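Renewal narrative, Specific Aim 1. Our central claim is that a sequence can be written position by position from structural information alone. The example that follows is taken directly from our test logs and has not been curated for this report. It begins with the structure tokens describing the chain, in the order in which they were read.
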């Protein structure tokens, strides 16, 4: 072999090695693009959801309390700041800006997770682990719900803190301390990373007194927040008292959380996660037992417990424990408030910690290429299962629910100035929203409801929902005290006919010998919504507000006999 041939072979070998190193990063980038496109496609028809209305409607303004106040006992100051900023800049006619911010934070989490895993198990295994998180279909509630930027932010900052601790120097310590505070400002999941930092601090041979601030800064931050704002959480919202009765349930719940995370990572989760009797959970439980056994075997082979393993395992156990004890508070308010270990909301954080722990156990293990190939193929099946579950949930539940919410809001918009004083409603929330707060936000930032033109293009059930909301908001009803007009003008019909009116106060006369059923519709198809009945040969009052719509009301009847609908005669 000549020197020139040897040089060409060396160059070719070098280029191949470069390709092997860069290919996982390129595939990761492609996976992130596909994941983001999928999430944004599935959320394109969604509006704001549940807890997001608290930030948009009940925390208006930039006062310190609007940022720092807890939500169900949890710190959400970073979420509040993000939502308020986006609401100020883009309004609230669409949830898209919040969805984009949440998806971007989710991608940031995955980028940091890949870096952490690559340091321990190499780029290809890191790609497999990150890919499972990118397409974790069982975590659809996180991926569809922009409010869950709280989880994404906490996890991203927490993984960033673990990466900073890898430096094992002063700069890394300072960065980790700052990131732990950031993690906690997004959600209580930051507590799990504080537990990880405490474990690392205890096992690190460097002088502890010089590094107390690594976990200490976040602990002080949380304590100060709790003393000023967090302790004010009302008992009706969340009871933080620790009850001894829950202790026997904690180990089982923690094990089930571990099993559910493995089931989700394998793409075997089914349904919406609200039921613990998932048919494939048994595989997660068997996997959990195998994982624990292999972890014990691996640790026995090592001269000492790896610091990174101790940190991630402490964080995982803390997270599982927090989820377990929270159920005691939820159960006080009935089984509907219970969140099973399989709950979709819990799958992302638990799965991330499982992947982190697994990487620290495999650190230093030379994984054969065939094992990576098998894992890669299996991960593709898991990803396919996750995408299918995510798509089904979006199409069957989340998108119809979002359309219902927008129709409900459209009815309130149509009521407009005729909305009853003190009226409250629930736009897909578990809490009441005062209409005056909603209208103040709409005036400042626009309405997330269907416009009247959009509403008329929706299916009959959504238009009926809008009418029902309009009727409730404006207080349309039959009155037992008919109005008295000096001069009246009456229109007559029989019970098979409908009468169109522009709105106002009316005297409804049942001139027949049987009960008269009364229905009204404005954007819905007649007969519309039932509002009451009038006994034979009797009269009732009817008020139909004009509201903000130019559409007429359609009054329809059921029964027999003639009807009179009278209103005050206008002056010529």
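The sequence written for that structure reads:
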């Amino acid at each position: 072999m000549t020197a020139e041939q040897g040089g060409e072979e060396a160059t070719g070998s070098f280029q191949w090695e470069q390709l092997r190193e860069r290919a996982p990063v390129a595939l990761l980038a492609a996976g992130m693009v596909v994941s983001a496109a999928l999430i944004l496609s599935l959320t394109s028809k969604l509006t704001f959801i549940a807890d997001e209305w608290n930030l948009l409607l009940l925390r208006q303004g930039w006062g310190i309390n609007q940022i720092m106040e807890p939500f169900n006992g949890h710190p959400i100051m970073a979420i509040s700041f993000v939502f308020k900023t986006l609401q100020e800049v883009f309004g609230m006619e669409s949830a898209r800006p919040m969805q984009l911010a949440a998806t971007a934070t989710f991608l940031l989490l995955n980028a940091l997770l890949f870096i952490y895993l690559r340091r321990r198990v190499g780029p290809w295994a890191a790609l497999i682990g990150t890919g499972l998180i990118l397409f974790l279909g069982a975590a659809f509630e996180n991926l569809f719900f922009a409010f869950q930027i709280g989880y994404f932010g906490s996890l991203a900052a927490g993984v960033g803190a673990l990466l900073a601790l890898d430096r094992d120097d002063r700069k890394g310590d300072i960065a980790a301390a700052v990131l732990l505070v950031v993690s906690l400002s997004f959600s209580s999941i930051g507590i799990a990373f504080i537990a990880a930092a405490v474990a690392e601090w205890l096992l690190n041979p460097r002088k502890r007194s010089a590094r107390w601030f690594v976990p200490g800064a976040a602990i002080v931050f949380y304590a100060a927040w709790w003393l000023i704002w967090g302790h004010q959480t009302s008992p009706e919202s969340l009871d933080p008292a620790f009850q001894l009765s829950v202790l026997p349930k904690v180990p089982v719940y923690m094990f089930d959380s571990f099993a559910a995370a493995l089931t989700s990572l394998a793409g075997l989760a089914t349904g919406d996660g609200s039921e613990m009797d998932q048919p494939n959970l048994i595989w997660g439980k068997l996997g959990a037992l195998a994982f624990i056994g292999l972890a014990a075997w691996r640790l026995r082979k090592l001269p000492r417990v790896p610091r990174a393993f101790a940190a991630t395992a402490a964080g995982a156990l803390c997270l599982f424990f927090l989820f377990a004890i929270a159920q005691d508070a939820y159960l006080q308010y009935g089984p509907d408030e219970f969140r099973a270990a399989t709950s979709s909301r819990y799958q992302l954080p638990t799965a991330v910690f499982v992947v982190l722990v697994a990487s620290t156990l495999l650190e230093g293990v030379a994984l054969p290429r065939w094992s990576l190939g098998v894992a890669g193929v299996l991960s593709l099946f898991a990803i396919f299962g996750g995408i299918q579950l995510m798509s089904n949930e979006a199409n069957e539940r989340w998108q119809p629910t979002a359309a219902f919410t927008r129709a409900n809001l459209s009815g309130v918009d149509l009521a407009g100035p005729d909305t009853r004083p003190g009226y409250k409603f629930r736009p897909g929330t578990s809490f009441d929203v005062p209409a005056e707060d909603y209208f103040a936000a709409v005036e400042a930032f626009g309405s997330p409801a269907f416009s009247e033109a959009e509403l008329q293009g929706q299916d009959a059930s959504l238009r009926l929902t809008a009418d029902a909301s309009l009727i409730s908001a404006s207080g349309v009803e039959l009155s037992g005290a008919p109005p008295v007009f000096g001069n009246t003008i009456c229109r007559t019909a029989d019970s098979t006919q409908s009468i169109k009116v522009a709105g106002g106060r009316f005297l409804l006369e049942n001139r027949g010998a049987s009960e008269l059923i009364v229905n009204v519709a404005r954007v819905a198809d007649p007969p519309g919504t039932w509002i009451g009945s009038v006994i034979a040969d009797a009269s009732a009052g009817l008020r139909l507000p004009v509201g903000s719509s130019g559409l007429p009301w359609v009054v329809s009847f059921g029964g027999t006999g003639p009807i009179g609908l009278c209103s005050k005669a206008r002056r010529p």
